[in-house]
Amino acid sequence: MAFHIRLKELRLQHNLTLRKLGEKAGVSYSILNSIENGRIIPSKDVALALAIALKIEDRETFIALAINPSQV
């Protein structure tokens, strides 16, 4: 599964808007919107911040999906 699709699924499961998730993760709305729409790939630091904000237990897999999607 593509990172941006997984991110949107998780955000919706947590009932968060893009703005709310951005505030929790310290990521701007415009960057988050671009990530979720598949226009840009997040850095490892941004993926980690999103994993923390979304309380993802398996952060390594989530980050790997973001930065190296063909290997997950």
UniProtKB/TrEMBL annotation:
Residue span(s) of domain HTH cro/C1-type: 7-62
Superkingdom of origin organism: Bacteria
InterPro entries: Cro/C1-type_HTH, Lambda_DNA-bd_dom_sf
GO molecular function, one term: DNA binding
Pfam families: HTH_3
Protein's name according to its UniProt entry: HTH cro/C1-type domain-containing protein
Species assigned in the record: Paenibacillus oryzisoli
